[in-house]
Design a protein that fits this description.
Blueprint (H helix, E strand, L loop, with lengths): L5 H19 L4 E2 L1 H8 L3 H8 L12 E2 H12 L5 E6 L3 H10 L6 E8 L7 E3 L2 E5 L3 H8 L3 E4 L3 H14 L3 E4 L12 E4 L2 H16 L1
Parallel strand pairs: 3-4, 3-7, 4-6, 7-8, 8-9
Antiparallel strand pairs: 1-2, 5-6
Helix pairs in contact: 1-4, 2-3, 6-7
Length: about 210
């Protein structure tokens, strides 16, 4: 399959999330209209996306969920392990560590870092926590490709710079600030506060 545009990849991951939910609910098959409603796109868009995969569905039964998920992850994930590190072991950082524990075999947070010496040299949710001063050494030692930033806004850019210098190629930033990274480094901004404010704004508009 040819290189997939970023927006299409995002839809694929949303499809995967929905398929997990349906599988957990005991469903065996899914229809394109269900995927469309869950992701917020048209059924036609779903069918165009599914042309990327070797799937056989029918109007009566839809697509077999397990087969669908196998096809998705063959394109979305590597068979090899992708190592990640997390910087900032506060409440959000701890929640992320707990979420990823044993959840995805191909994705693993191999180390966490915090500037608080009292949090260093401990294990949380199976993940070793180090002092932030060891970030460069451990990232290179582990060969981590992704860095997750859950520090304060004032420390986020410095943390991103350190992660890039250590060799990560992708950064997921939860700090409420826009980061600058070199060309070739993938950056995903997750601004929870902004999302909450948007939800509140449109909720107020809907009530008028």
């Amino acid at each position: 399959m040819q290189k997939i545009p970023q927006r299409t990849v995002e839809r694929f991951f949303r499809y995967a999330q929905f398929l997990h939910t349906r599988l957990d609910a005991g469903a065996e098959n899914v229809f394109s209209r269900e995927l469309a409603a869950a992701v917020g796109v048209s059924p036609e868009q779903v069918r165009r996306d599914l042309m990327n995969f070797d799937l056989r569905g029918t109007p009566q039964r839809g697509y077999q969920i397990k087969e669908f998920m196998t096809e998705l992850y063959q394109h979305l994930e590597s068979s090899s392990l992708t190592k990640m590190v997390l910087v900032g072991v506060g409440n959000l950082g701890k929640a992320i560590l707990t979420y990823f524990l044993h959840r995805r075999p191909n994705l693993s947070i191999v180390a966490a870092f915090d500037s608080d010496q009292d949090k260093a040299n401990r294990v949380y949710s199976g993940c070793q926590i180090y002092h932030s001063s060891m970030l460069g050494e451990i990232v290179k030692q582990e060969g981590a490709a992704v860095g997750i930033i859950t520090v304060s806004a004032s420390s986020a850019q410095e943390t991103a710079d350190a992660l890039v210098k250590a060799g990560v190629r992708g950064i997921l930033n939860f700090a409420p600030t826009q980061l600058k990274v070199p060309e070739g480094i993938f950056l995903e901004q997750i601004d929870i506060t902004l999302s909450i404010e948007k939800a509140a704004y449109f909720a107020r508009k809907a009530a008028l």
